[in-house]
Specification:
The chain is α+β, with helices and mostly antiparallel strands. The protein has one domain: Alpha-Beta Plaits. 36% of the residues lie in helices and 39% in strands. It contains two helices and four strands. A four-stranded antiparallel sheet has the order 2-3-1-4, with helices on one face. The longest helix has 19 residues. The protein is elongated. The model has no long low-confidence stretch (mean pLDDT 95). Pfam families: DUF503. InterPro entries: DUF503, TT1725-like_sf. It comes from Amycolatopsis acididurans.
Length: 97
């Protein structure tokens, strides 16, 4: 079993309130869940209206599959015009960890 985790630090565009932030972040989370069948949540910067920390996790039998899914998730987030991807940190745990 392999477990992959990806953490995105994103800067949101023209967002002036936490309500507007939710209107950007919620569709992104739903899109990641639907397209890639991953677990995803807003995991940080909860009180900041222009920043979001998004966590993605995936479990699979093959490490290459986990890496591929995380790569696709990163491409999707990086390609969203309403936000700027500031950083992405990845962790992969395998059977020997």
């Amino acid at each position: 079993m392999f477990v992959g985790a990806l953490e995105f630090d994103v800067l949101l565009g023209d967002v002036r309130s936490l309500k507007q932030k939710r209107s950007v972040v919620r569709p992104l989370l739903a899109d990641l869940r639907k397209r890639f069948e991953v677990s995803v949540a807003e995991a940080g910067h909860l009180d900041l209206h222009r920043r979001a920390l998004i966590g993605v996790a995936v479990v699979a039998a093959d490490g290459a599959h986990v890496r591929d899914v995380l790569d696709e998730c990163e491409r999707l987030v990086a390609g969203r015009p309403e936000l700027e991807l500031l950083s992405a940190h990845r962790r992969l745990l395998g059977p020997e960890d």
